[in-house]
Amino acid sequence: MLQYYKQTIRDLRNPESEKVREVYKVLLNRGDSAEDFIDHVARHSRLGTAVIQAAMTEVTECLAERLAEVGSVALPGIGTISVAIRPREGRDKGLMDQTKEGFAVKQEKRELNARSIELHHLNFRPAKALFDDVYHRLSAEGKLEMIGGKEGVPLYQPRQKSRRDRFAAAREYIQEHGFMRVADYSELTNLSRSKAQRELRLASELTHSGIIASGKGSHRIYILAPKPTPTDEQG
Fold first, then answer.
1. How many CB atoms lie within 10 A of CB 199?
2. Is 77 within 8 Å of 127 (Cβ atoms)?
3. How many helices (H) and strands (E) are present in the chain, helices listed first?
4. Is the distance from CB of 221 to CB of 235 less than 8 angstroms?
5. Which of 120, 189, 203, 230 could pair with 86 in a Cys bridge, judged by C-beta atoms 3.0 to 4.6 Å apart?
6. The whole model's pTM is what?
7. Which of 26-39 are b and which e, b meaning 16 or more Cβ less than 10 Å from the residue's Cβ?
8. Where are the alpha helices (H) located in 145-192, listed in sequence order?
9. Which residues make beta-bridge pairs with 83?
């Protein structure tokens, strides 16, 4: 039986407001592992687990090969997987200016070649037959069970009520530890990782927060902004 729960979350566009909305999410921590799924297939077919494992390994290797060659592969009855690419970090596509005549003009011309491109992510579009099959199975009575009660489960209630208080807590943390990562801010404030990342990015852009970013990508950390040097007149 598939279990789900209701969450009440704040308006992400204005976290300080009192506006909330309800969302419903599936409880995923009961999901099958690869071994569980193979055992399930074996119980419902004449194939042994070793044969199924070998077949899936072959399919996976061929899938990776074909995706790298043609960019899109349709799996019968399952769906279509396609490749999405992006420039590597530090590679700009070129800056564009909008002219009065309405034409876009490049300020800088930076040609991108194959070495400048990397895999961004894989897109998956389920087959209609698979979607319809899951839909009808879940629509059957007794297939869904709500947990957590009618009041739902609050999502990441912040320990500090205001963003200003969270920034102050972050400064204290950085002063003690020297730097802060997104995971540290998430644990400190009890915010989700995505919201913690957005708030720290905002903090680094606000001069009055006292926090700046250092490094790029996965190596980015947040430190205290240097105190302004007093001018001769102030001195």
1. 23
2. yes
3. 6, 11
4. no
5. 120
6. 0.53
7. eeeeeeeeeeeebe
8. 163-177, 182-189
9. 122
The CA distance from 210 to 227, in Å, is 8
CATH architecture type of domain 163-224: Orthogonal Bundle (1.10)
Q: How many CA atoms lie within 13 A of 177 on its CB side?
A: 15
Q: What residues contact 177, with CB distance under 8 A and at least 6 apart?
A: 184
Buried b (16+ CB within 10 A) or exposed e, 75-94: eeeebebeeeeeeeeeeeee
Q: Give the total residue count for the chain.
A: 235
Query: Which of 221, 218, 212, 214 lies closest to 167 in space, CA to CA?
Result: 212
- Residues 6 or more apart whose CB falls under 8 angstroms from that of 8 comprise 20, 21, 22, 152, 153, 154, 155
Structure tokens that stand for 53 in this block: 């494992």
Q: Domain map of the chain by residue range?
A: 1-78+127-155, 80-124, 163-224
Tens-digit pLDDT string for the chain (235 aa): 788 877 776 665 565 556 677 778 787 766 788 999 999 999 999 999 999 999 999 999 999 999 999 999 999 999 999 999 988 765 555 444 444 444 444 444 456 677 788 898 999 999 999 999 998 888 876 677 777 644 444 445 566 678 888 999 999 999 999 999 998 998 888 888 888 888 999 999 888 899 999 988 778 899 999 876 665 445 4
Tell me the pairing of strands 153-154 and 2-10.
Answer: parallel
